[in-house]
């Protein structure tokens, strides 16, 4: 999939819709995606972001939320950035 569609914006934000696109590993090509989504009034919520480096990068890009198989990793990155943490959830 190309990083940009024929309209000059990333496919995930084309026509004010959310859609699947390349994952966090595709690096700098997607850096503008969250900004473009926000300009269209969309939230950016990537999922299955498990590597701490990817979590760090996506938070830096301004995503709204992160879904991970390892929420403790997301909390660790957020804490290191002095971000407000959501309440912890007990695991049964």
Describe this structure in words.
Residues 1-78 form the GP-PDE domain. Pfam families: GDPD. One of its GO terms (molecular function) is phosphoric diester hydrolase activity. This protein is mostly helical and 92 residues long. The protein has one domain (11-80). The protein contains 3 helices and no strands. The longest helix is centred in the middle third of the chain and has 10 residues, at 52-61.
Pick out its properties:
GP-PDE domain-containing protein, GP_PDE_dom, 92 residues, globular, mainly alpha, 0% strand, disordered N terminus, PLC-like_Pdiesterase_TIM-brl, phosphoric diester hydrolase activity
Estimate the strand proportion.
Answer: under 5%
Say how many strands there are: 0
Cα(first) to Cα(last) distance is 40 Å
How large is the radius of gyration?
14 Å
Task: Kindly report the average pLDDT value.
Answer: 76
Give the assembly state of these chains: single chain
What is the overall shape?
globular
Instruction: Characterize the main sheet.
Output: none
What structural class do the secondary elements suggest?
mainly alpha
Helix content: 25-40%
Stretches with pLDDT under 50, minimum 5 residues: 1-9
Output the helix-strand order: HHH
Number of domains: 1
Number of helices: 3
Protein name: GP-PDE domain-containing protein
Domain GP-PDE: 1-78
GO biological process, one term: lipid metabolic process
GO molecular function: phosphoric diester hydrolase activity
């Amino acid at each position: 999939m190309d990083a940009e569609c024929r309209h000059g914006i990333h496919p995930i934000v084309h026509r004010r819709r959310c859609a699947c696109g390349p994952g966090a590993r595709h690096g700098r090509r997607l850096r503008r995606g969250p900004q473009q989504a926000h300009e269209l009034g969309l939230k950016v919520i990537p999922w299955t972001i498990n590597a701490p480096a990817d979590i760090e990068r996506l938070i830096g890009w301004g995503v709204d939320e992160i879904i991970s198989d390892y929420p403790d990793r997301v909390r660790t990155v957020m804490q290191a950035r002095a971000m407000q943490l959501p309440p912890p959830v007990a695991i049964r």
